[in-house]
Every structure is written in C-alpha cells, then in structure tokens.
Fold this protein.
Amino acid sequence: MSKPFYESPLEGRYASEAMRRVFSPDHRYGTWRRLWLALAEAEQQLGLPVTDAQLDELRAHLDDIDYDAVRAHEERVRHDVMAHVLALGDLCPTARPIIHLGATSCYVTDNADLLLLREALGLIRGKLCEALRALGDFALKTKDIPCVGLTHLQAAQPLTVGRRAACWAQDLLQDLTDLDALLPSIKLLGCRGATGTQASFLDLFDGDVDKVETMEQAISQKLGGLPVFDVSGQTYPRKLDARVLNLLASLGISCYRFAQDVRLLQSRGEMEEPFGSSQIGSSAMAYKRNPIRAERACSLSRHLIALSQDAAMTACTQWCERTLDDSANRRIALPEAFLTADAVLDIVIYLARGLVVYPKMCERGLRDALPFIATENIMMEAVKKGGDRQSTHERIRAHAQAAAVRMKEEGTANDLLQRIVEDPSLPLTQEELSTLLEPSKYIGLAPRQTERFVTRVLRPAIGQDGCADAGNVVL
C-alpha cells in the first residue's frame, strides 16, 4: 500500500490511539453537533419555537458526518463552521431553520475545544500517575544500591540508585500537582455572542435576562455541569491555552531530565533501558545497545517545550474581543502538544518499568571515586591515631593529586589507598582503610529518604490512577 502524502509521525508512529481519538475529526465535529443539540434543547425548554421533531432529527445525526459534503460547502462559503451547519442541515431538513440559532462560531469551536482539553488532560493525568507508580516501584527496589553521585558530571558524594530515581519522580509529581490545580480553571465559554455580551440571545428572548442566563446554565448541565467563564470576549481567554501548554512543557522538562539521565548513566554502564533480544542497536556497529527510547523521549520533549511558545504568542495577540489569527495556530499547536506529551509519557512508563541496573558497574564507579571522596574521613582517622591534622592533610592531598594524574595519563586504577598505606607518616593499615571505604558510610539518608518519599508522598498522591495500554505506539 503506497503512502504518497505526508503523515504526521505523532499520528502514525508515536501517540496512542486514545489521545489521537480525542483530537480526531469525528470526535471534534461530533462534539459540535452535540453542542448544537444542547443549544436547541435549552431554547425549546425556554419557549422558543423548537419542535420535538427537530430535536429528534438532530439526535439521529450526531455522528454520521459526511466530510465530502462539508468540503463542498466550505469551498463555496469559505467558512468551516457554516460548512458543518449546512452539511448538518442537509441531513436534518426539518431542523435546518433552528440549527445554530442565536450562536456564533465560537459557541461550538471554543466549547468543543474546552471539552477536548479536559478530556485530553484526563488521559495525561492517568499516564502521569502510571509513570509515577513505575518510578516509585523502581526507586524502592533500588533504594539500597550505592552509586557515585555526579555533580558537574564529575564524581561526587555517593547516593543510591533509588534516591536518584526519587528525584526524577518528584519532578513528575510536581507536574501532577500543577495539573490538578489547573483542571478547575478549564470552564466552558457558554453562549456569549459576538463580543461576549450575549446581546443576540437577549434579543432572541425579547429582553428576558433570566431566560438568557437559564439557557446558559441548562447547556452547561447538558455538558457535564461544568462552570462557565464569568466574562469573555467572543472566545474563551487564550491565556488558558498558554497555561495548558506551559503545563505540558513543564512535563516535557521533567521527562527530558529523566530520559537524559538514563542516557548518561547508560554510557557509564550503570543502567540500561530495555533492549529486545532481536533489537538492532546500530545498522553499522553490531555490538551497540543505543538508548533509543530515552533519546526519543528527549527529542519529543524538546518539541513539546517549544510548542508552549505558540500558545504564549497567541494569547499575547488577541486584539480586544477577538482576532482570527489564533485559529490556524491552535488547530496545530493544541493537538500536537497533547499528542507529543502522550507519546513522551508512554516512553517514560516503558523505561521506568524496564530499567536494568548493573550493581557491579555502580560498584566499579565507586571503587574509582570513593578513595577520593573518603579523603576527609581518612584524614580524620589518621589524626585520631596521633597524626597532625595539617601535615596529614598535605600528605593526603599530594597523594590524591598524584593518583588522579596517573589514572588520567596511564589509564590505571586508582592507587590512592596503596600510596597512603606505603606512606610511613600516615599511620593507617590496608584493613583500616578498607573499613573506611564501605559505601554505606557515605550514602547518608538516601535509602530512608527514598522510602519516605515513595510511601508517604508519592503513593498517596497518585491513589489508584493508571493508564490505558499504549496500543500501537512504536516503543
């Protein structure tokens, strides 16, 4: 089967079926038709001449969208919403006179977008909770495995694999907190008219203010009882889009940081992403096991972070009560942001569930670094045995510098301990030094911090939430 035209990788390769369905034409335009039905039902309840037959006709055609008919109408009228109104009218000749009665285009476009945003955020929340659950489980499983801490990507004080994972999870947990704080802000536009004053509906109901407000409340109830923005122009505030995409960008930052650390640690041999038995790491170098999923997560996260600028610039340029330069941008930026976030979270879940840790490689890194890290403890032990603090410090400093130079110039193992044992001015034996180099002496409260965070903070926050299967996603 040939594919002669461009297909978005988000649609064909990365995003899940569930998220693609949210932003599908069927779902979007089916939501438009449900909005027209809710409007007509509310208008009938308040005494406007809308018949049961007209409502029944609308109910019978909520999902049978003829896209060829819509396209033909739009080529003629050059207006996407009116093209759908006319196509629905073709299917509902009895209801045609009352479809879209009193409304502007934004009644369907904006209210539908708000419903889609809420639905999409619900999917993101479920997957975010699943990623947190997987990372929490991984953190507890590895909370006692010592490894070298890295600051400036240089060896620093040891910690544990699980404690590092707890930091990854804490970033994602902040995103969950922000998401839950944002959700109540996603309200409906309601029925506001050309400039948000509801003047057309006031005229439709012969100046009856109560009926105008009751109609809006009735429509809200039919759409799940969501609150309505207190004031608006013709559109809902585009500031909300910026807030939503900033949230997704923040999620991208968290996922990027996690995936990038996995890549760095895989290069050190301490950790590895899942690798299939038949998987090819490189088309040229047969031995390679490249971290392709972590790399993909970083790549997509970068796109997700960049997309937030679209919504920010759109929110900046809403002239007075509305301008149409938001439309084309939002058609691309909003769905792409959610499809990208969805794809990234699927990868993060996959990685967190299948990360492989190599304790012996962690130990090897510690063997090279720990003698340097332990120099203060070594110095203090030497002083306890009668050594002078200042001269002891100078001798250990000189040995440490020499050992580091030899490691780098000759590629040898760290011989600092041997140098100290052989120095008669430093009264320490090999056995005493080995005791001082026990990794558990240097990891502080890492295991305790990890367990406390996962059991007392992370797990109560996510409850029983989870995600749907990624389906056809290429992982």
Notes: The longest helix spans residues 105-141. The two ends are 23 Å apart (CA to CA). The first strand starts at residue 146 and ends at 151. The beta strands are 146-151, 154-160, 271-272, 356-357.
